[in-house]
Write a structure and sequence with these properties.
Order of helices and strands: EHEHEEEHHHHHHEHEHEH
Distance between the termini: 17 Å
Bound molecules: adenosine monophosphate, manganese (II) ion
Structural class: alpha/beta
Strand content: 5-15%
Low-confidence stretches: none
Number of strands: 8
Strand order of the largest sheet: 4-5-6-7-8
Mean pLDDT: 98
Length: 284
């Protein structure tokens, strides 16, 4: 059923969002979401609270995560849905993936110090609800707080991205490993916001081909970070690669996110929604 208000991508304080899993569940329900997943970066620490909150609200729920992967020298995000959030292979894989974030954050702060921005590590850490998950978003909030930039999007234009001060290349999980952790726990792997990566057509073809070979099954067609033309392009990719289609706002914060929970357009009616293939994993 394509016309379901499913929102299968968002972030809580357990990664780089500003709301708790419970507050997100209430906001989703209030916006009319009928099926919801919390997909924190490299972390499933919020899943139990999210499941409980969804159940209390009578909102259908899928376990979720967004795993950071390195592919063709770039960072790609793989969303996992409907897996067993207590599976030890997932738990240890994510813990490894989170591993390098502390050192990376210190290296980022050192680069920022060289362009005159002091105390960024401590500043970012204050925003991190989960110190193991210190991310560029927390640095962005610190740079806004300290008056260097007006808003977080400006931070990513001037800092923290390739070629700009504060960018530290990092090696995340392998594509095959991330897909395997999700599948071993009975879940479905989905390529998140594909338009964001800036791949050449050849690299993008390689990404989707290898993803499928590893057992990946879905692609985000509708996300807060796609334009309507990009949604049309990736609907076509879903058809060409035989992938199920997902829909998720990627909501992080009422102050920063342009797309609120549950407000995206419907999926094109001819695509197979990921929730059709995940029916037995949905918690009611
Ligand atoms: P990290 O995992 O530490 O590399 O941080 C990545 C996070 O930074 C993403 O999940 C987004 O929340 C945020 N981010 C990346 N690029 C942008 C951007 N251009 N504008 C706003 N937030 C961004
Ligand atoms: Mn994020
Ligand atoms: Mn992402
Ligand atoms: Mn996300």
């Amino acid at each position: 059923m394509s016309y379901l208000n499913a929102d299968l991508h968002c972030h809580s304080v357990v990664s780089d969002g500003t709301l708790t899993p419970t507050a997100l569940a209430h906001r989703a329900k209030g916006n009319g979401v009928e099926l919801w997943a919390l997909t924190d970066h490299d972390e499933i620490g919020g899943c139990a609270e999210a499941a409980q909150a969804a159940q209390a609200l009578g909102m259908a729920y899928l376990s979720g995560v967004e795993i950071s992967v390195t592919f063709a020298g770039k960072t790609v995000h793989i969303v996992g849905l409907g897996f067993d959030a207590t599976d030890p292979r997932m738990v240890s894989g994510l813990s490894q993936t989170r591993g390098g974030r502390g050192q990376r954050a210190q290296d980022m702060a050192e680069q920022l110090a060289q362009v005159g921005i002091k105390g960024a590590y401590e500043g970012a850490l204050r925003y991190a609800g989960n110190p193991e998950l210190i991310s560029r978003t927390h640095f962005a909030r610190f740079l806004v707080e300290s008056g260097v930039c007006k808003e977080t999007h400006e931070v990513f234009r001037r800092f923290l991205t390739e070629g700009k001060p504060g960018f530290v290349p990092h090696r995340w999980a392998n594509l095959g490993d991330a897909v395997r952790w999700i599948r071993e726990g009975g879940g479905m792997a989905i390529v998140a916001h594909p338009a964001r990566y800036g791949f050449t057509p050849t690299e993008e073809f390689a990404l989707f081909s290898e993803f499928k070979q590893h057992g990946g099954e879905g692609v985000e067609v509708l996300t807060g970070s796609h334009t309507s033309q990009e949604a049309i392009n990736y609907a076509q990719v879903a058809r060409e690669f035989g992938l199920a289609a997902s829909r998720g706002s990627d909501f992080h914060s009422p102050e920063e996110s342009h797309t609120d929970l549950g407000t995206l357009p419907w999926l094109p009616g001819d695509l197979t929604p990921v929730w059709d293939r995940l029916a037995d994993r949905i918690q009611h």
